[in-house]
Amino acid sequence: MPMPYTIFVVDDQESICQAVKSVLTDESYRILTFSSAEALQEGLQVERPDLILLDIWLPGIDGVEALGQLKAQYPSLAVILMSGHAGIDIAVKAMKAGAADFLEKPLNLDILLEKVAAHLPVTDASSQGLAGVTPAAPTTFARGSAASLIQSQEPQRTVRNNAVLNGVGLLSGRPTGVIISPAPINSGIVFRTLDGVAIPAHITALENYDRLGQGRTFTANSTVLAKSGRRIRTVEHLLAALNMMGITNASIKVDEEIPNIDGSAADFCRIISAAGVEEQAAKRVDVVIHKKMVIGSETLSEKHLYVEPFDGFEVIMRVDYPAPILEQSYRFTPTKQAFETEIAPARSFNTFENIDHAQQQGMVGSGYLNSHIIIHDGKVINTKLNFPDEFVRHKILDLLGDLYLIGHGLRGRVIGNMSSHGFNQALALKIHEALPN
Predict the structure, then answer these.
(1) Strand partners, 80
(2) How confident is the model at residue 366 (pLDDT cuts 50, 70, 90)?
(3) Given CB 3.0 to 4.6 Å as the disulfide criterion, which of 110, 247, 292, 408 pairs with 308?
(4) In the chain, what are the domains?
């Protein structure tokens, strides 16, 4: 019989230590508790645990300082920080200092068990899959008439290490941050609020989805997910990066709004690349398009978007707006062009008049000013373009993020004319509804 995992719990509140000890002992873990960082150091002289749960607010040496000492002494030892008085900015700081993860108090016991299991060292008995999860057997799917699910030859992937980024919220103008963590096979992309609400990155979690009918309305200026009274806003650029970098499973902690650095996906690609991409022991599942599906009217003077059968995946987009944009078109084929260099750096754009009006109405924060290409009187007034056709490339970026709400990679050709988030989301919903139950 294998030896149980040993976990050190460090918290100056005896009630917290005993509650965590009780829960984890029931799961057959061996638990030792300490009331301070100094007491923890004494315990480490006697034995080395498999994992440490460390409160941030401790008497004497606080948790963040103690974390720095631990990582210097034992670089490979996983430490999960805990706090009841920290926001996402403290969580991001902790992750950058080397924490394996972050837990908000009062502790959600399901999330506690999930995080502990995810960060314990893998043994021979649990080497299949991630965190002891056995890979699922290949699945045969019933085929729909317009779209079906097939098992790909590509593996599922997650991030190898935590990826963290802080910045300013586009709509709120407040400091915010995001932590992208590894997740087990078949778990998908899941956003988690600081109080533990899990919101899947899926079209059925789109804000106001339950009120959609024949007169469908969609979030117009960004993509917003919602559940149990919680919202995660402006997810589209991050989802585009995850989509094109092949990440199928990830747990993403965020406080209401994804940080929007410069209005592109470049920083998300950077932090994912730095964290590393881990192939997992199960194949991904893709959506294959069999029949053309259209949103809108297929004329050059009207917005429209459609997907059609295609051996592979590509996007063709056209826009035609007043100067300085005018008519632009771009074909993106991931097997021929690199998303990280050709699409990810393309930034959001808007007119000065629209932004000024929205701010006066209290609809957006100051995040707009530093994260958009701003147009006034037929000219770009605040920056130099990354590409001459940056505007149409950004439309493709938004589309790639919104389409990942289907929950799978896509095999088909998507063709758009001046598409918006509303049209993108409508197409994602149409594809979802076409899949077999």
Answers:
(1) 53, 101
(2) low
(3) 292
(4) 6-121 (3.40.50.2300), 147-434 (3.30.230.20)
